[in-house]
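Case study 2.
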Amino acid sequence: MEVDVRAISEKIERESAFVDLLSMEMNKVIVGQKHMVDRLLIGLLGNGHILLEGVPGLAKTLAINTLAKAVDGAFSRIQFTPDLLPADVVGTMIYNMKENDFSIKKGPIFANFVLADEINRAPAKVQSALLEAMQERQITIGDETFKLDEPFLVMATQNPVDQEGTYTLPEAQVDRFMLKVVIDYPKLEEEQLIMRANLTGAYEKVNPVVSLEQIRKAREVVNEVYMDEKIEKYILDLIFATRYPEKYGLENLKGLISFGASPRGSISLAKAAKCHAFIKRRGYVIPEDVRAVVLDILRHRIGITYEAEAENVTAEDIVNQIVNVVEVP
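Prediction:
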């Protein structure tokens, strides 16, 4: 087995060279927020969608815009509002009087990178219009179905739920996001740099440094990252501990969890761990890769009970407890 892993490692060393280029390009504009930039790359390589949560003004939109510029792809932005209609997202059929026929006008969802800005300000009807696109990678308008271009990545931003005029996203939709990343305020020194750059307009121009073809190729290589059976078992233990905590000596969590992570959770955790290894330019997954991404993969997949809310226990606290107790291979 040793030889194989070495060969894979060498291949990944070669293929992942662009990751540094991409990070450098994004860092021209994004100050700090390394965690967010890394997670955007994991979503891109893992063919998964990303939900960014944070108060307004933390460069969520800017980060996604910058990524789209650094990867030579089509970018579109949909600002979600309470009066948005599904047709505003996917497109609609327009009657053409001259031809006496209907023609199809495609909506902004037809792009490689779609920014769904403030997704939790729109009602469920519009959010469900995104679901088909996110899950099936296709759009149906009238009786025609269109395949979406690859890579196709939805990056949604949302404001914390207790803000004015926000709707909670339905569980089924939240589950379709591979990662949910919570963004915090920048550090003082970072904010000083942000302030200066904004006042002087000293931002550098972001250039496309990676082609869509390179991204497609990298995605295939990510699948080759070696994952030992022990690591697979570790991932499954983490997932199963969210469903049956009492089997892992976590009886205290039984009354706090209303539902655990779905199989989509285990698939996403395995995929994200492989992407993390790829970004770190390693050909095999170690437990650290799993632990690095577990919070972003699971924080939105665990339902908490009223008891947990009353005790101020969050899904993150539950994930942290599970990670501390489940045995590391």
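The mean pLDDT is 85.
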